Structures are given as C-alpha cells and as structure tokens.
Amino acid sequence: MKRIDSRANDQLRKMKIVPGFLAHPAGSALIDIGGTKVICAVSFEPGVPAWMRQQGVPGGWVTSEYGLLPASTHQRCQREASKGKPSGRTMEIQRLIGRSFRSVIDLVALGPNTIYIDCDVIDANGGTRCASITGASVALQLAFRKLMEDRMIPRFPMRENVAAVSVGMKNGECLLDLCYEEDSAADVDMNVVMTESGKLVEVQGTAEEAPFTREELDRMLNLAKRGLDRLFEEQRKAIGDQPIPQPAPGSFGSLAASLDNAFKNQG
After folding, report:
1. Contact 259, 39 (CB under 8 A)
2. What pLDDT does 253 receive?
3. Full-model pTM
C-alpha cells in the first residue's frame, strides 16, 4: 500500500522543534510535524484552584488550554471564544494534555502554584493533540529549568518527557503518524501517549469500519513505541544537554522538606 506522501508505513513525518519560540512565557516551543504546527507555551502563576485550597491538598496544579486558530484548517473554523464556550473536542484534548503531564510532574514540588500549558494550533494536518503533547514536553522542561534558576520552585519536578503519536490501520496494514487524509480514511485510528521510560499514559483507539483484533492492537502499540522513541530523541535534541539546575545551598532546603512532610501527612 502506497501512502499519500510516499512514506514507509513505519516512518514519521518530517519534524522540527524550535525551543524558546516565544519571549514571555517561562518556557515555549514551536513544533512542526508534517505541516501540523503548534505553539506550546508554559506559564507559572502563584495560587492553586479553589478545590485544592478547600480540601487542603498540598502542592500545585498543572492544567492546559488548547485551541485551533481560525485559519489553521482547510476551511476557516470559528474562534471558540466567539461561541461562548469550548467544544467537546477541545475540552477532551485539554484534559488529555493536562493528564499526560500530571502523570510525570511532582505536584508537591511545585508548591502552591499553577502551571498553565497553552497549545495553539496554527496549522493543522492531522495529529494536533499528539503534536501538542510532544511540543509541550519540551516547553515544560525549559520552563522548569528557568523556574529553578529563578528560585521559584525548590527542585526540578518533572520526572521524564512525554510524547504522543498516532497510529492506524488501513486495509490490514499498520501506519505510523497519520496525516489528515489518512486519519479521515483509516479503518482504525489510535493515539498513544507514552513516557520516555516506556510507560503508557493513555491509549485512545477507535474502529471506524470494523473491530480490530488483539493482535492488531499489539502491532499498533509496537509501531507507536518505535515512533515515540524517535520523538523522544528529537525532544532531547531540542532541550539540549544542559544539566538540571540545583537550588543554591540553604535557599530551598527547608521549603522542600516542608512540602515533603505535608505530602506525607496527607497520605
């Protein structure tokens, strides 16, 4: 089977990550994968949601917002702000992004602060949620380095990178990293979110034409893992080999200890 863009079935689309794309956020990155371009930005703000304060939950919070720019799709899409509320699809993707990173971030180490992850799609050619997660992981790593250097947090809270990729089935063949045309015509469409150590965060798979077998599921997951390993390589290149900053002696030792104690007392 020949793919629309002549790629091999196990080949990712051409990819580029530009770290530090924006001037104002704590961390940012532009990710371009196969023509899908997403600006990912990470902001830090003091305070936590009301429910955390009311329930006495220690530590901070990580949340996300996602959106398509009007001209990012083949036909102009209306800004959701003009509709008065986000669509169900947008809410689903925002929650997915937030879950993906809360799984690898030590929220207690954030202190009573909130991390906002903003993912704005400026060009869509399939796989926007996967590109958002992959790019946001770079933006978060850069943001936490800056926050450590600025002595805003006591220790580096992100345990490892996260990335996501789409896989699918068409005419019995497994395909990696679906473009828009493949995504809309696939027999099976699946998004796989994974940590750099190989742990699954989320698997979203749907049969469009006919149910798929367990053997086909395993084939798609194995193919996704191979693609994700290459995405993690690109993330590491974008972040660079800088060592993780360490707090100055005595600057945050007592705060870190108090956060640890608060966490233990809750548990």
Report:
1. no
2. 42
3. 0.89
